[in-house]
Amino acid sequence: MKADGRRVFFNPNKIVTTCMRAGASRDATKRILKKIRGHIYHGVNTKDIYKLVLSALREEKEGLSLKQRYQLKDSIMKLSTAGYVFENYVGEILKHSGFTIKEIRGKVKGRCIIHEIDLIARSKNSLILVECKFHSKSGVYTGLKESLYTHARFLDTKSYFDAEYLVCNTKISDHAKKYAKCEGQQILSWGYPPNNSLQNVIEKNHLYPITILNISSKEMGIFLHCGIMLAKTLLDYSEYELSKKTGINVTRIRNFQKLSRQVIF
Question: What is the pLDDT of residues 142-153, one digit of tens each?
Answer without folding.
Answer: 999 999 999 999
